[in-house]
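Shipment paperwork, digital attachment
Item: protein structure file
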Amino acid sequence: MKQIFLLRHAKSDWSTMGQKDFDRPLAKRGVNDALLIAQHIQDMGYSIDMVFCSTAQRTKETFDLCADSFNFKIEKATYLEELYFGTVDTLVDLIKSLNEKFSSVLVVGHNPTMQFFLEELTGKTLNNFSTCGLAQICTENSWKNLSLKNCELKSFIKPKDLKF
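Attachment content:
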């Protein structure tokens, strides 16, 4: 079985006028939400073999806060600018290119691509892929034979689900 984890970046800070979208850091709420998700990842015992992360500031910060919980070294992640404006096809190509020795991958990116990709893989409709939402998707296929609408959405968790 192969696992695909999709993590949308946490809430970003919009307080700096004129700041480029690409350079926006996480807001305080975003940091707190990422830490909640990181604790959930650790509690669930999730691990990953490969990471593709957008080069935007907020995605890198989100991954930085979650990497230890996945037991993954930050410097081993693959940072790709094309994930910033990427499409579902971009993500499909990335996943299909994975070495078969890997059993799990994490993609840290942006909406609407994250939501569209989840829906294309699973055939499920998601009302909202919230900031810092984490999806776990499973498939019995090899990476190169990844089949759309033929993967299982095992779980989808958002920070608000973890707050008491």
